[in-house]
Each structure stands twice: as C-alpha cells, then as structure tokens.
Amino acid sequence: MTITFPFTAIVAQSEMKLAIALCTIDSSLGGVLIFGDRGTGKSTTIRSLASLLPTMKSVVGCNYHCDPDAKSLCSECEFKKSAGHKLRSENISVPVVDLPLGATEDRVVGALDIEKALTQGIKSFEPGLLAKANRGYLYIDEVNLLEDHLVDLLIDVAASGENIIEREGLSIRHPARFVLIGSGNPEEGELRPQMLDRFGLSIEVKTPTDFKERIEIIKRRDEFERNPEKFIAKWEGSEEDFKKQIMKSKKLLDKVEVDDQLLESATKLCAHLGTDGLRGELTLLRGVRALAAFEGKKKANLNHLKKIAPIALGHRLRRNPLDDSNSKIRIERAMQEFFASTEK
C-alpha cells in the first residue's frame, strides 16, 4: 500500500483542496486542473485524494470495475449476464491512476497481450491505464507537456466515455469514464484549448507568502518523512471526519435545490464574461450544488455562485490582447462589475 501525506494535514491551499473535494462529491463536474509554482503541494494533494474516497461495488475479476447494479456493463460482463451467470460483487478502492508523461499509446489505451499471443497463439486484449481508471480518477502530472497524440486521444475518450481500440486484428470497446485531474507549471508551456475546456474547475496555486504557514508546512513535511506511520496516525481522526463529510455530502447532493433565479444569474455572468458554449453554465450549476452539499445546505445561494465562479470560469475566458492580467484578476474584476450592476 502506498503511503501518502494526509489530505487534512496540508497547510493553506484551501481553494485547491476545495476543488478536489467538490470533484469527489460530484464526478460530473469534469475534474480539476491545478497550475502553479513548483513545490506548492499540487501532486501531494492529488495523491492524498485516494484516502478520502469510499469503497465502491465492482464485479469480481472485471478489468473495468463494472458496477453489478448498473444498466450499462462492459462486453465481458454483459456476455456473462446474458449467459445466465450471476455477477459476483466485491467492494474495492476507487482507482486513482497516474498517467506518466513517457507512457506509450499502447500503455494508455491497451494492446494485444504479446505473451499470450506467443505462448498460446491467442489474441487477447491487455487493458491499459484508461481501463484501470474507469469509475475512478486519472491523474496527469505536467499535463501541459503531454504529447499531442495522447491529448487528442484523451479528448475523444473524455467526451464519449468509451475507449475504442482497432488494431492487430482486435476490435475492443470498453467503458472509460473517469474524473480527469491535471497539474503543471505554466512556465513550461500552455495547455491546448481543446484539452483545457475538458476540465470543469481550474486552480492557480502560489507559494505561500505568510511566514507562519511556510514554517508549519516545513515542520509537517519533515515530521511525515521522519516517521510516516506516526504522522498518519496523528491525523487519522481528522481524515476520518473529512471522509464522513464527503460521504454525507454525496448523499445530500441530489436533494440540493438550485432555483431559476440563481441559474439566471449564472447565465448572465457567463454572458458578461463572454465564455464560449454552455459548458460554463453547466459547471456552475453542478459546482454550486456540490458546494451547498459540502456545507450541509439543501439550497444553493448567491454566495455559492460567487465562490465557484472564479474556479469554474477562469480558464474559459477569451484572450484579451489589450489586457495582460491573469485570468483570476480578470474574472474577479468582471464579477465585481457584474454583481455591482445586478445588486443596484
């Protein structure tokens, strides 16, 4: 079992932790992109996500973690079910899969099992990282450095929820629905607009400037590295409480009301900012609902919209050649203008 730094022990970076928590509560949010300085805890925070996730029900032996109660199953589970076999289930950890920069296309999408082909003469499919991430999370560090052909592939799969492989005499189609999480340093290159649009939320993280916070970060990291087991045990209660809050929020999510007045404000805000398409409005709707559930409230309000808008719309702004301000400053300025005019 991989030892990870406790999520609740991470100092500061509240916006990043909130975005990850919201994507855990509602996977339809579309994942989160975290850009910022090196050494600000991006990878640490994302990898600590696994400890927050409740177990999920899966068909025993299924390469794609099919839910036995779902209407849509992979071809293997569907065949067993139609043949009259009962699908046995087990509780497994929600997968959090790393997609390394140097991964080949075969490693990502899956390929012919060479060993079986050579030793048994059988054409068999060996699932890739997309299969392993189904119903879970796919994490890409340095996502802005990912090769173009892999970016194209991920865009297609993220849009369809299916991975289709046609090669070496194999024709395979399997479910590949996952929450996409990416991190990177903007100094090393920009992310393609098509890929950027696939992320529901976007966060910009900075190196903390408060000296007390910096000292606390150093102390906790040093304590963790000296004795990981002891440090994890120290934060076990806090982790369990946070996990219970996530589970409670997931149960409350479908009961949260978002009235037409709030939706109208969300739509007008997107129009005011000039965002393309309707993905921004959909993300705002899901975001305010998840935030209200996280706070234990049954109705979303304007304060939820104000909190979600910067992280849901910042990466959807059109470039303005006459304004070199970063997206966060531009969206905060636009929100001040918009809400000042609507509150008159």
State Rg: 22 Å
- Taken in chain order, the helices and strands follow as HEHEHEEHEHEHEHEEEHEHHHHHHH
Q: Mean pLDDT, nearest integer?
A: 87
Largest sheet: 5 strands, parallel
Description:
This protein has 344 residues and is of the alpha/beta class. The protein has 15 helices and 11 strands. The chain has helices spanning 14-25, 42-47, 75-82, 105-109, 114-119, 129-133, 148-160, 193-196, 211-226, 228-234, 236-252, 260-273, 279-294, 302-313, 327-342, and strands at 32-36, 56-59, 89-92, 96-98, 110-112, 125-127, 136-141, 162-167, 170-175, 178-184, 201-205. The strands form 4 sheets. Strands 4-7-10-1-11 form a 5-stranded parallel beta sheet. Helix 9 (211-226) packs across helix 10 and helix 14 (302-313) runs antiparallel to helix 15 (327-342).
Question: Could you list some keywords that capture this structure?
Answer:
344 residues, alpha/beta, 5-stranded parallel β-sheet, two-stranded antiparallel ribbon
